[in-house]
What does this fold into?
Amino acid sequence: MSRILVIDDDRSVRHLIERTFVGSEVEVISAASAEEGLRLQRESQPDVALLDILLPKTSGLELFEKLRASDAKLPIVFITSLSSSETAIKAMTMGAFDYLLKPLDVARIRELVGQALEIRRLMSIPVEMPGARADANGDAAPVRGDTLVGSSPQMQEVYKAIGRVAPQDVTVLVRGESGTGKELVARAVYQHSARHTAQFLAVNCAAIPDALLESELFGHEKGAFTGADRQRIGKFEQCSGGTLFLDEIGDMSPLVQSKVLRVLQSQQFERVGGDQTITTDVRVIAATNRNLEKMVDEGEFRSDLYYRLSGFTIQLAPLRERREDLVPLLENYLAVFSRELQKDVHGIANEAMEVLTSYSWPGNVRELQNVLKQTLLRSAGPVIIPDFLPDRVRHPEAETSAATVTETDRTDLRQFVDQRIDSGSTNVYAETLEFMERYVVTQVLRICEGNQSKAARMLGITRGCLRSKVRALGVSIGTQVQVAGEPVEV
It folds into this structure.
C-alpha cells in the first residue's frame, strides 16, 4: 500500500484528502504542524508529501528543504492559494513535483498523487540485473523490485553497456521494439549513476500532443498562449541536477527537437513565451522504437540531434531473437503476478509451456506480462494448463471470432456476446469491450489507409496510444499497412 503525508494546518483540507483516498490502496497520514510533519515523515517514510505553502511558525519552503534533506527522492506537492502560487513556482525550481491550487479539486488531487507515486516508483524501486546483488557470503540475494531478466548473449551485452555508461555523465539512447524494456534500462542507468540521489523524471513524448510537449519540457510564461493563465516550470528546469528520461523521442516535432538539441549542447533554454535564458544541469536518457536513420533521411528527424543522442546506444533485442530467455521470464513474472493478484499458482504445465515458448511474442516482454496476468485471472488451480491461456496464444494461426472483423461482427454484437456466454467464459465484460475496441480501431485505420496521425485524430487519442492499442489488440483483417513504422494488418 502506498502512503502519502499531508501537512496542512487546515483541518478541512486534511479531511478532504483523507476522504479522496478512502477505499483505495493509498494510506493517508496527516499533520497540522511542521514539527509533527517532520516526525511522521521520519517514522512512516511516505511515498508522496502534500505540503501547505503557509504553515504556522515556518514557511513551506523551509519545511520543503528539511523534508528533502531527510529523503531526497520524496515527491512533494505544494498546496497553495492563487495569491501565493509564485512561491509554489519557486519551489518547483528547487525540485518540488507540482502544486495544487485551493479550493482543491478531488480529481486533480488523484491525478497528481498518481503521477507522483509513479515517479516515486521509478526512482526508488531498484532495477535488478543478474549477479548485481549478493549477500555477505557471496550468494545471490533475493530479487526485489523490477528485474531485467535474461542470460542470452544479447542481454549480457545490455548489462555490460549499463555498467559502462551509467557512471559517465553522458547522453544515452536506448533502442528497441515496443515492449522490450527500454524504461527498465533507463532506470538501471539512472540508479547506477552519480545522480542516483537526485530526481528521475520521465516524459512520454508520444503521449503528449505536439502543442503541449514544448511547454511540458521547457515550461511557459503567463500569457504565452491561450490558456496560459500562470507561469509553468518545465521538466528540464524542475529536474536540474537529476536525470530526465525522454521516451519515444522519435515522435517529437521539429521545433521541440531543436530546443532539446540546444539543451544537450549548452544546458540552456527559454520558456515558451519568455526571453530569459535558463541554465540547467540535466542528464538525458532517450528511448525510441522508431528507425531514426530513416527518419533523418526523410527529413523527419534532425541529423544533428540524432548524432548528439546516439553517442552511446543500448540496443534491446526483441523477444523472438532471444528465445533462451523465455522460460526465465515466464517463471519470474509468474511469481511476481501470483503475489500481486493473490493467486495460488506455482507452476506451468509442460503442455502450456510448449504453447508459450512456441508463440512469437510480437509485443515482446510487455505482451508476455499481459498474457500471464490474463492467464492467472482465468486460472482455477495451482498449475497453468493450456486452457487458461488466451486464444491468440493457443491458436495464433487462426482468426478467432474476437480477433476477426466480419460484416456480421460489425452489426451483430449480440452474436458475439451470446457465443462468449455459451462458451462458459467468466470474462465476458472485458472480452466484449476488447471486441468493440478492436472493431473501432480497425475501422478507423482502414478509413485512414493506415495513416496513424489521421487515425489518432479521428479516435481522439495520441499516436502513442494508438500504437499501443494496435499492438495490444492484435488488429488483423487482411491488408498490411505501416503504422508508426511497424507493419499492421488492417
Remarks:
- The chain has 21 helices and 20 strands.
- Residues 318-398 form a domain with the Helicase, Ruva Protein; domain 3 fold (CATH 1.10.8.60).
- Confidence is low (pLDDT under 50) at residues 132-144, 399-411, 476-490.
